[in-house]
Amino acid sequence: MARQSKRGRDAGTGRFVTIKEAKRRPKTTVIETIKVGRTKKRK
């Protein structure tokens, strides 16, 4: 089952920002929910 992670993103530049900053600037940022899958084991 895939886990979910929330990320903040600046709508103008596309750069990631913290969730705290995204909540502070709701007009110019978006909080996205991203599915996080398992990482493959390396040999």
Tags for this model:
single chain; 43 residues; mainly beta; 1 helix
Fold and architecture overview:
This protein has 43 residues and is mainly β. The chain contains one helix and three strands; from the N terminus they run E-E-H-E. The chain has one domain. It has a three-stranded antiparallel sheet with strand order 2-1-3. Strand 1 and strand 2 form a beta hairpin. The mean pLDDT is 88.
Q: In terms of quaternary structure, what is this?
A: single chain
Please give the count of helices. 1
Structural class: mainly beta
Overall mean pLDDT score? 88
How many structural domains in the coordinates? 1
Count of DSSP strands: 3
Largest sheet: 3 strands, antiparallel
Alpha-carbon distance between the two ends: 23 Å
Low-confidence stretches: none
Bulk shape: elongated
Question: Strands of the biggest beta sheet: in what spatial order?
Answer: 2-1-3
Rounded radius of gyration (Å): 13 Å
Strand content: 35-45%
- Specify the helix fraction band: 10-25%
Secondary-structure map:
Blueprint: E1 3-10, E2 16-17, H1 19-24, E3 29-36
Antiparallel strand pairs: 1-2, 1-3
In short:
With 43 residues, this protein is mainly β. It is built from one helix and three strands; from the N terminus they run E-E-H-E.
